[in-house]
């Protein structure tokens, strides 16, 4: 077939209906009404057509004719699906399965053609028009989201067809409605020309996945309207003007506003910001309808090279959010959307990029209400064309421009009345081209009061911000200093990272280092973590499935599991870390002088919503606490506050201060006392365990005894401590590589996860050199090295005892030319049983050298099972940082110095081999790692590896542990 170009956004329906070729037609469709604002009327009737629909799946677009759409068609034998929903996630596999690819098109790149095998779902819904449905006016049928192409009939009459999966499409149907039963028929094709524009990194999930609604349109009802509500920070006044297709009046009782549409009114208002989301309830009333308004006054401008809202530069602490539910896919219910917003607010986030398509509109209502800055992104990505150097890229081909403009218009018109939206984004990863420029021009013209974002054009031809993804720290530093060059236009623009901190598996590392840069340079206005949620699909055998688990011929594995929350929305350690890194109040202390310095890092709000609390810990246990009076500092202000006299403690333990900022009252998003920020600082140095080596090793047959311990006399291996039998501690340098250790294949910097395996660090051999019983120590000398290599670690275990306790001092001396850092350095041993765990050190969650900001020193309790972080693809996890001592399995272990502690019911080798959580089954031994060092985590699964300061270099090291029994 040939291209048909359409100069209009949405062509009128042709006589006789469109040809079947509409599927591969690059035009956006035909028959639909022009796009307009999305709203819920106060008084016009509506009827949800969500629910159970009749469903028939065909393998191709023409396997069945369209007689099913005719009146009287008998579909009693058909299956059923739930709308909204994706058919591949229903029917227990009977309706095909999801496909996951990152950027590769799962079909030949042959635009606009799609495969003959094109799953096609015929949907039928009979509904009764309520008997009191008004007979005046008209009616509109609205589809909020259908992937990827739909053709629609009502009562046997064809309405049209459309593409643009995550955008609304409306049809005028008043003339077709009948009293009593009506039948809506929808034919949905998985693949269409539109699929070329929807190559986002996510599951391909066909279906009617958002609401279907019938809307009564009374005579004189509101059609489209545009709320313009600006704020002048110099006067404290807001100006409101509501433009409406149909004339009417606008009232805002709290502001005594009652004006005609199209008229401006200026009054004193409280502005809307993400920190102070003040909304004013209003009403737009026309002759035929009343529409509730939620008005937020704010002004977004580009000024002095900065993104300013209400006169102040903002710092985005954001995240990229795809819509995801492990069972419903992208068909989210309101409560799930609210959960996302609540979790974001509770973790100090202030911004969302709706990657990579406009979300369900209800999500934007929540952003308005709870307060989140939004980059609303268009449903556009053509990433797969990168495989052919962007040849034939639709965004640089005029034939596709109407489709691009249609998408831009459907986004802007639908969402334009949300104060939370500060940026329109043209799309993601679509290269560059004239189509993007056309979109940007149209958007700038239609809505000059917001800014335009697009990452793919580093020259910033069409955008109001220089945006990048996964730029390394050193480049971001340069950009902050304006030393990055670029076009003249780019040099004038502020910078954001629209994606960074790739939250795949364990990580992301290095967030605190980015935040430091964002806070240091004015030009850097923050960033958006990639991404919010792991797109794991609930699976009966695998727990959660990822790419490849449905037998896809092309897939990108667990690259789809890279969120700050697990599929069930449990926060991962990455989210906890991010919360701490971006906290709105900075609390640092000078413990020796009893002074705490508090800084308000917000952009708009003072500190009056927060209460402060101090506490003092001795050996991790709180001995005293009280409230701390902190002035209601304005944004950017700091104050020093004196702490009370530290409590006197005779035990001479380790003392520290903890200061917390809590919500002073209940808010919409969290209850009073919710911890927003905290700081911790030492009030004195940690006393190290003192240990006089008084005992000498005694030979007893094939054993040595030393204090409470027994050793194999031949190998020097520790056998037991008191009555606790152990599998002897040995040097361990291996960890099950994380996604970030492995790194993405396109990363150009060294990927150490690969090198570690090549070098053989996962199969180290331990050669016994000598077992020496001296006067006060049993010394075991070994050399630890991988087969086939000359590098090794000369390792000496020196055992001493004070009669009660046992001390192990490990000395490691690298031999040969070590060109790679070590994954970890410590000892691993086995315990026959252990369940409860108590420790004094960092917690409560996992931490690694560059993910440890949120690790709070204290006394923590857990269990071996709960210490595990259940990454969807199993990998190194669960280390606790700065551990002074830990008790488990009848042993107490004290570190000199502090150590990293990990315990699990499987070996590192089993963890490494597992592909899903369900591959891990507890064995008889609890494996404990006591590490002197861990290599950083970084974000190399897409982005930089760990910064050099987080490398665990192969260097001479000495560290010790003191063991005693607790029973
Ligand atoms: C970037 C994409 O924009 C995003 O959709 C996602 O794929 C992310 O990467 C990785 O998870 S593109 C990147 C490969 C430069």
TrEMBL record:
Annotated source species: Streptomyces azureus
Reactions accelerated catalytically: Hydrolysis of terminal non-reducing beta-D-galactose residues in beta-D-galactosides
Domain of life: Bacteria
SMART domains, alphabetized: Bgal_small_N
Gene Ontology MF annotations: beta-galactosidase activity; carbohydrate binding
GO-annotated cellular components: beta-galactosidase complex
Keyword presence, Transferase: no
Family note: Belongs to the glycosyl hydrolase 2 family.
Protein name: Beta-galactosidase
Keywords: Glycosidase, Hydrolase
Presence of the UniProt keyword Hydrolase in the record: yes
SUPFAM superfamilies: (Trans)glycosidases (SSF51445), beta-Galactosidase/glucuronidase domain (SSF49303), Galactose mutarotase-like (SSF74650), Galactose-binding domain-like (SSF49785)
GO terms (BP aspect): lactose catabolic process
Lineage: Bacteria, Bacillati, Actinomycetota, Actinomycetes, Kitasatosporales
Region Disordered: start-end pairs: 1-28
Record-linked InterPro entries: B-gal_small/dom_5 (IPR004199), Bact_Beta-galactosidase (IPR050347), Beta-gal/glucu_dom_sf (IPR036156), Gal_mutarotase_sf_dom (IPR011013), Galactose-bd-like_sf (IPR008979), GH (IPR017853), GH-type_carb-bd (IPR014718), Glyco_hydro_2 (IPR006101)
Domain Beta galactosidase small chain/, first and last residues per copy: 705-964
